[in-house]
Amino acid sequence: MKICVLGGGHGCYAAAVEMSEAGHQVRFWRRDGAAFGAVREQGGIRVKDFRGERLVPLGDADTGLQLCEDLAAAVDSAELIVVPLPATTHESLAETVAPLLQDGQVVFLPPGTFGSLLFARAMRAAGNTADVAFAETGTLPYLARKHGPAQVVISCYATRLPTGVFPARLSERAFAVLGRAYPSVEPIEDGLSGALMNAGPVIHPPLIMMNAGPLEHFDRWDIHNEGTQPSIRRVTNALDAERMAVREALGYAAPHFPLADHYASEGEEWMYGRGAHGKLTDSGDWREKIDLREHRYMLEDTRLGLSLLVSVGRWAKVPTPIAAGLLAIASAVAERDLYAEGRTLENLGLAGLSRDQMQQLLHEGVDA
Predict the structure, then answer these.
(1) Is there a single domain that holds both residue 110 and residue 130?
(2) Side-chain half-sphere of 200: how many Cα atoms within 13 Å?
């Protein structure tokens, strides 16, 4: 299958590697094409995972992994376009890629924070009337970190990826394509359901806010290791209960993938399977410097993700006091109104929709 991977982040390199090793023809593009220099010099991307360390070589014009400097060439004829980038990149990238999308393509945002709507709107704003499916899931398919410009370490692969499609009328076609690349994808109702599976806004805001002292004191701090303490877990569980209550109020079916399953050694398997938290902390890759004004945990998971949850809760008349409280504290820390800047239903122009109108939009798309 022809697959295009867009972006230069940790998950992008992991996706390019996995898709190439699975036998797909992969075109890999990033805005800063010069940053591929080390990959070209090395002749591929070096990867380390549970199977060991190896080089995933660059292919020729028709096979394997290809580096693309031209976005149009990368997107052209791709059946699947994978965008494993932070939601903070969506608006700019959506505008850039919108005129290039073609009938039948599937754009995968893992995870999306309702970015599926932004990409669909950008395509229509560009005058592109192609029938494209936009899918989003609950997490990045990999726990991964780049170790240099041409090497990536993948600590864990997702085993379950609950995924919704926007517009939902294209779900059957989209899942047929997605399943060939990501067999771990599990179909759920629609794009908003997929957005409300996003684990980032549940796990990261409590960890950064309740570890604010050590994050500012120490040069590097692991919020997932020594930063994950029982009191913080209790807050995370309460926040996740709000997310699940919102999902239930909207009529979305279980399983809701409670984050508590991520930490459990038995019971229902979470998105990264069992024992994933230990793999994450054992790797040491998440011992890092987190700037509470600039880090993506603040600007993506809190500003965009928590604001979306709070706004959907307000629209559905479901209280979300933990989410709203964390967002208010984070706004004080960042010295900016994160809800006002957020990816809210108000800012998306959807807060005035009725339940029926929302269902129409989610099923039919932006032309409805």
Answers:
(1) yes
(2) 31
Same domain, 188 and 328: no
Indicate whether 243 and 165 sit together in one domain: no
| Cα(326)–Cα(334) distance, integer angstroms | 12
Q: What is the pLDDT of residues 145-177, one digit of tens each?
A: 999 999 999 999 999 999 999 999 999 999 999
Q: Residues with Cβ < 8 Å from 208, sequence gap 6 or more?
A: 215, 223, 290, 292, 295, 297, 298, 302, 330
Number of domains in the chain: 2
Interval 50-101: pLDDT, tens: 999 999 999 987 789 999 999 999 999 999 999 999 999 999 999 999 999 9
Residues 11 and 110 sit within 8 Å (Cβ to Cβ): yes
**355 burial via Cβ count (<10 Å: 0-12, 13-18, 19+):** exposed
352 and 228 share one domain: yes
Q: DSSP secondary-structure letter at 58?
A: B
Asked if 3 and 27 count as a contact pair (C-beta separation under 8 A), the reply is yes
Omega of the bond leading into 84 within 30 degrees of 0 (cis): no
How many CA atoms are closer than 13 Å to the CA of 4, on its beta-carbon side? 24
* Chain length of the chain: 368
Look at residue 161 and tell me if it is in a domain: yes
Please check whether residues 48 and 183 belong to one and the same domain: yes
Q: In this structure, are 190 and 205 located in the same domain?
A: no
Residue 368, domain member (yes or no): no
- Give the global pTM: 0.96
Output the 3-class SS for 301-355: HHHHHHHHHHHHHHHHCCCCHHHHHHHHHHHHHHCCCHHHHCCCCCCCCCCCCCH
CATH code where residue 138 lies: 3.40.50.720
Q: Is 267 exposed, middle or buried (0-12, 13-18, 19+ CB in 10 A)?
A: exposed
